[in-house]
């Protein structure tokens, strides 16, 4: 059991790549983590980490051991769940980070806590999957962009994308008729992991350049709020502005020039075996988040 405890510490350290974060997650001191890793290295006669003052990186031998340890720990978790949780509802604290507007996710969360009262949800609205493992979150809900290879994902649904702005903005600044007209407008962009998300306008090399970047934000909810108050034009998933489009406070433009869709995914730390609380949450969100907009396709 002491060996299993040491291997568990090694896995956490390998995932966070930081002994201090590992210590905080496990309720130990950073020195205890370092000593445990050192004892494991001595016992196996190999070096597991390249250490620096800020973080640690796995050696080739460390990568190989990590895969083996994950299989061992996952098998133990499956055995424990089979004999101790059989017939019991999913339970425990579930830390979730979300990158979609709270107003849209809230109804789904309300239904979830009714369906799974034994799960304690801890929700934070942030910038998606970046740093998911290091921050100790269990699941992230974010756009379907490339993610860390240490993460697994599940498609939750999609929404059409549009270029939109507030009616008050168009009354004040005019309405663009072509993508080239955007050069004369305030264009607000969304970014993920520090990179701007391109507008799907299908511009060719002979066309004018990309829309100007008047402002960039990292949260979809903030982008919706900026556009709604008339600050500028943005490329937005229609689900996020459904109410505003219906009541006329916001309008689509350049509909013939926009293609593509907003893909939403759930991501979680890579594992062959999902904890029951994670599986329950991911499946529930997949079945409910886009059900109204996309019917059975969500």
Task: Walk me through this protein's architecture.
InterPro entries: LysR-type_TF_proteobact-type, LysR_HTH_N, LysR_subst-bd, WH-like_DNA-bd_sf, WH_DNA-bd_sf. This is LysR family transcriptional regulator. The protein folds into three domains: 83 residues, Orthogonal Bundle (Arc Repressor Mutant, subunit A), CATH 1.10.10.10; 101 residues, Periplasmic binding protein-like II (D-Maltodextrin-Binding Protein, domain 2, 3-Layer(aba) Sandwich), CATH 3.40.190; 104 residues, 3-Layer(aba) Sandwich (D-Maltodextrin-Binding Protein, domain 2), CATH 3.40.190. 40% of the residues lie in helices and 23% in strands. It is built from eleven helices and twelve strands. Strands 3, 4, 5, 6, 7, 8, 9, 10, 11 and 12 form a ten-stranded mixed beta sheet that branches. The protein has a two-stranded antiparallel sheet with strand order 1-2. Helix 1 packs across helix 2, helix 1 packs across helix 4 and helix 2 crosses helix 3. It is elongated, with a radius of gyration of 23 Å. The chain starts with a helix and ends with a helix.
């Amino acid at each position: 059991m002491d060996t299993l405890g040491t291997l568990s510490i090694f896995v956490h350290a390998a995932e966070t790549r930081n002994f201090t974060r590992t210590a905080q997650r496990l309720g130990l001191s950073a020195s205890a983590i370092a000593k445990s890793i050192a004892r494991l290295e001595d016992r196996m006669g190999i070096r597991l980490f390249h250490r620096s003052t800020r973080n640690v990186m796995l050696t080739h031998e460390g990568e190989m051991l990590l895969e083996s340890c994950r299989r061992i720990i996952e098998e133990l978790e499956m055995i424990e769940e089979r004999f101790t949780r059989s017939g019991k509802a999913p339970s425990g604290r579930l830390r979730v980070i979300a990158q979609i507007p709270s107003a849209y996710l809230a109804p789904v969360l309300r239904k979830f806590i009714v369906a799974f009262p034994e799960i304690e949800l801890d929700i934070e609205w942030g910038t998606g999957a970046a740093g998911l493992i290091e921050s100790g979150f269990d699941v992230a809900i974010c756009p379907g962009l490339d993610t860390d290879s240490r993460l697994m994902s599940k498609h939750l649904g999609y929404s059409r994308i549009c270029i939109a702005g507030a009616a008050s903005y168009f009354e004040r600044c005019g309405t663009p008729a072509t993508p080239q007209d955007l050069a004369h407008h305030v264009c607000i962009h969304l970014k993920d992991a520090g990179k701007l998300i391109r507008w799907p306008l299908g511009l060719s090399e002979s066309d004018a350049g990309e829309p100007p970047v008047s402002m960039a934000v990292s949260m979809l909810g903030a982008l919706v709020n900026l556009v709604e108050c008339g600050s500028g034009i943005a490329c937005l998933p229609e689900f996020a502005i459904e109410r505003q489009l219906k009541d006329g406070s916001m309008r689509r433009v350049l509909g013939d020039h926009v293609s593509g869709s907003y893909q939403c995914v759930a991501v979680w730390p890579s594992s062959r075996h999902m904890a029951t609380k994670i599986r329950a949450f991911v499946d529930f969100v997949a079945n409910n988040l886009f059900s109204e907009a996309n019917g059975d396709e969500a």
